[in-house]
């Protein structure tokens, strides 16, 4: 009995006029996998993310979440069903506190939206447990605009993970962080992986990609040019010529 893909792209394409930003990608994301996507600027990574999370419609092909086509379902509906994504630019309500951001995320993602029931014990406990797991408890009452970049990045993941997503899509989780901060984030990602969350992320920081992912995809001009173990990226001639540039 083989497990079914939790998320699947079938010959997915996105055209902008004559440009094929995503040019026919097939992908099966299996439960528990951690997939890292790399590739040069303009390769189509963010567009592919937008397609597989239902933020933009495909030009061709089909995306399935839990075996069902996502066509026509709004992104917030998919988020409630367990397909959650974050964005490259750190979002959130910067004038609110860390705790308030977490609670807002829980409330907006709640399936049961009876007013008055949302600040209940269960939701409070989820927020507190997640903040603890991310090392953010001490910053709970700090305003987001006052916390360091690393903590903001962690908060972005925490507000997504508090929903206990089936698939979590992260767009450049460590962009702009210093090397020591990247190391800390790598440990955090290993803890998230250990919970069994299925992860797909885009990341230019190769050290992060190779140490967190168990499967790497490299995109170039809207296509997948590599799909395999992260350890094989550096040895792949095509990847070296278009992406790593002898680095
Ligand atoms: P980066 O690493 O710089 O974030 P990327 O791999 O995420 O790049 P995309 O942002 O997906 O690449 O862009 C792929 C191509 O599609 C680029 O040539 C971009 O200019 C083009 N593109 C993306 N969105 C649109 C749009 N809304 N309209 C027209 N062209 C677009």
Question: How is this fold's topology laid out?
Answer:
Blueprint: E1 7-16, E2 19-29, E3 34-38, H1 45-52, E4 60-65, E5 68-69, H2 75-81, E6 83-85, H3 98-109, H4 121-133, H5 149-161, E7 167-171, H6 179-194, E8 198-202, H7 206-212, E9 215-220, E10 223-228, H8 237-244
Parallel strand pairs: 3-8, 3-9, 6-7, 7-8
Antiparallel strand pairs: 1-2, 1-4, 4-5, 9-10
Helix pairs in contact: 3-4, 3-5
Adenosine-5'-triphosphate binds at residues 16, 19, 21, 39, 41-47.
Total number of strands: 10
> Spans of 5+ residues with little confidence (pLDDT < 50)?
none
Radius of gyration: 18 Å
Strand order of the largest sheet: 6-7-8-3-9-10
Count of runs of 4 or more consecutive helical residues: 8
Helix content: 25-40%
GO molecular function: ATP binding; ATP hydrolysis activity; L-isoleucine transmembrane transporter activity; L-phenylalanine transmembrane transporter activity; L-valine transmembrane transporter activity
Keywords: ATP-binding, Nucleotide-binding, Transport
Organism: Lutimaribacter saemankumensis
Pfam families: ABC_tran
